[in-house]
Predict the structure.
Amino acid sequence: MKMPRRRRKLCKVVLTILAAFAIMMSLTGCTSLSSLIRANISGVPYWVYSPKVGLGKDRVSFVGEGRASSSRQAELLAYSSIVDQLSEYLGVPLDQEVYRELSVLGTIQAYDLYVEDSFSRVLDRETTFYVYAVADSSLLEAASSEETIRRNEVSKNVEELVLQGDSYMKDEMFTRGISCYMQAMAASYGQDYIKEEYSYDTLFGDVMDIIGSITVSISSSDPSRARCTVAVTRKSVLLPSKVRNAEVLAMYRAVDMKGDAYDDSFVYITGADGGFVFDCLNFSIVRKGSVEFVLDFESELEVLECTTDPAVAATLRAAVEEKSVRFDYDRAYMLGDIAVAVIEFDSKGYAIGNKDTTDYLCSLLKTDGAEVSPFYADSNLEEDVLYDYSQLKGGADCLLVCRFGQMDVVEFRLGGFAASVEGTATLFDMKSLSTIYSSSVVYASAFGDTAQSAVKASFEKLADVVYSLLKADYV
């Protein structure tokens, strides 16, 4: 029995539809088909719901969506969405430069990523913007592999720092251990893949506990000489442990040649006994003042302040500063009152009879608080000057006699002069008329617009040298 023509035609249409449906199913799969239908119903391009359709294995797709009252703002939000997806894909945060490149140029060159298509629509005065971008999968995989390598290197670095710190702690070099832990904190900050025992928060707690157990103290002192012994110890179950190789920063005020005060510092390191003797190496330290001793973690704290949580870094700095100790001193003069006589000679060896350098050297000593008086000598030899002053019964405890002579004066073709001088200094005790100090020959040079100004400046430079030599041991 033959099927009616109309029915045969209807069956053929059904078979055609089923064949087309089978072909579509084989090409796109059920999920893709439902996405295509969903996109068609929603009135958006198919790639909004099926971004992988038609892509080869060498490409990776991203769809960004942005909603805002303005079209441009919605577009920028869509670009930002793609950057966020890319960051999650790579496992590393991307900076603003990547976002700027994509939003301005429509591409990210490092990953061969470019915008394939975009679509926008307005509904209830709100713009929705879609961006369809594709990237090179091999470049993304390479970048992801580089991130894995970086993470492994960071993890290894942090672990090595912590283990090194543990070794220092075992050897009772506690501040060295703290330094390693602080460096590990800086390296592990924001790295959530780091082991919990090496994490930023764990290390912060450890460092705070160790700092809290350390004490910096003055074990003995001589304020009249600005000298003291500093001890660094750590609490333990029985007796305090001596902290070896601890770096302690000594901060104090000093005075320059012009009498202006300035801040100076020096780092001391504790010995096997956990202490050191402070005897200032800067002879220009102010006559009366104080020295502050603090554990020296300045470089580590600066790194933490710049690269990690500022509040946590501030807490660490406060904990370190809380351990500082201050030493007040008032240095006594060992020489008493001083009379100063500077005899100047020209290049031929004749005494000039100038008083300027005598007054200048007196001003340097007075700036430091010494009782000083000038003695304008008529004699040229030191012994004669000593005899003349002793006969005058000037009353000073000591007499400083300097003999300064010109060596050479040179004129430059482009203008100006340079002068060089040499000299010696001898310090006498006026009670016994004996020599307290006698310098070797010292030298100085200076420049000036005229020969006379260059010579004067060089004599003053030589007076600076004598002042430093004298101050190092006596003033």
Observations:
- The domain at 338-473 is CATH 3.30.160 (Double Stranded RNA Binding Domain).
- The mean pLDDT is 87.
- The two ends are 135 Å apart (CA to CA).
